[in-house]
Design brief:
Blueprint lengths: L5 E3 L6 E3 L6 E3 L6 E5 L4 E4 L10 E5 L8 E5 L6 E5 L2 E7 L14 E3 L5 E3 H6 L3
Parallel strand pairs: 1-3, 2-4, 3-5, 4-6, 5-9, 6-10
Antiparallel strand pairs: 7-8, 8-9, 10-11
């Protein structure tokens, strides 16, 4: 059964997988890797680390590709949502852009088709 989890990392580099459900993920400091698979649901990723480490979001599964990604800004906030055409899964990245908080958010996004976006490419993809 799907569970709604809150997963918090440590000051070291963590690998965090929310799994099925509506999850809240925060890796803390360190170079964190967030893994999101097709069918995982709707997760919120709050990488509030202020260090300069590279945090990654990795998508796996059919349809979670760069060409199918839809990036939207949530209202006037610094939050972004990545969703995929025809798929109910999505990830909200809190404080990802337009924020005065240096180094918040993820710096690298890898899609299931092997394409990797930088933070700048993510911002350029906002519709």
């Amino acid at each position: 059964a799907a569970t709604n989890d809150t997963l918090t990392g440590t000051s070291a580099g963590d690998t965090i997988v929310g799994g099925v459900g509506t999850d809240y993920l925060n890796g803390g400091a360190g170079a964190d890797t967030y893994r999101f698979n097709r069918g995982d649901g709707q997760d919120t990723l709050d990488d509030s680390s202020t260090d300069a480490s590279i945090d990654k979001l990795i998508f796996s599964g059919t349809g979670l590709t760069s060409t199918n990604a839809i990036v939207t800004r949530i209202g006037s906030s610094s939050d972004l949502q990545i969703s995929f055409g025809g798929i109910t899964d999505s990830v909200v990245l809190t404080r990802q852009v337009f924020s005065n908080s240096a180094n918040y958010g993820v710096e690298s996004i890898e899609f299931s088709n092997g394409v990797i976006w930088t933070e700048a490419q993510l911002v350029n993809a906002i519709v």
